[in-house]
Description:
Layout: H1 11-28, E1 32-34, E2 45-48, E3 52-59, E4 66-68, E5 70-75, E6 78-83, E7 91-95, E8 102-106, H2 107-110, E9 116-118, H3 119-124, H4 132-139, H5 147-150
Parallel strand pairs: 3-7
Antiparallel strand pairs: 1-2, 2-3, 4-9, 5-6, 7-8
Amino acid sequence: MPSKTYKNISSTKRGKAAELLFIAACLLAGYDCYVPVTEDGRVDVILGRKLLIRVQVKIISETGRYITLCKINHSGRHTKKYNYTTQDIDFFVGVDLSSKDIYVIPSHVWTRYKSNVGINVLERLGCKNNLDLLENQVDAGIEPAHDAFAAHSVPISPIDH
């Protein structure tokens, strides 16, 4: 069966669908998930378990089979490109809307690439459908950068229902 394409759906809706697929997978894996109130920031999802983890979610290109690792704003005739840093986010996540595959990309991988990375590379590195990479990076002592939270850091405790 051919894979479904979503080109007739706005990029905003496709992006939100990708975020929600990732959030659902994280909730089922036992993470607390937080979503920023505004859409114009650099972080799409914040995960909580041991530490707060900042994630930028991207849609996998349907044509080129790659994930864009930068933010591109189109405003009239002008295009602005922003390259994320480890001060902005801890992980990129690429979501394939057709297959529902999720690619978790740790900072030691995405910082090696300028603007995009191919799915074939991520599959070789074990990033496909591997939420354990979120926990493994923390367990390996590669602590996510938390400058944005450091001044307001408080312990996170689960809410009993």
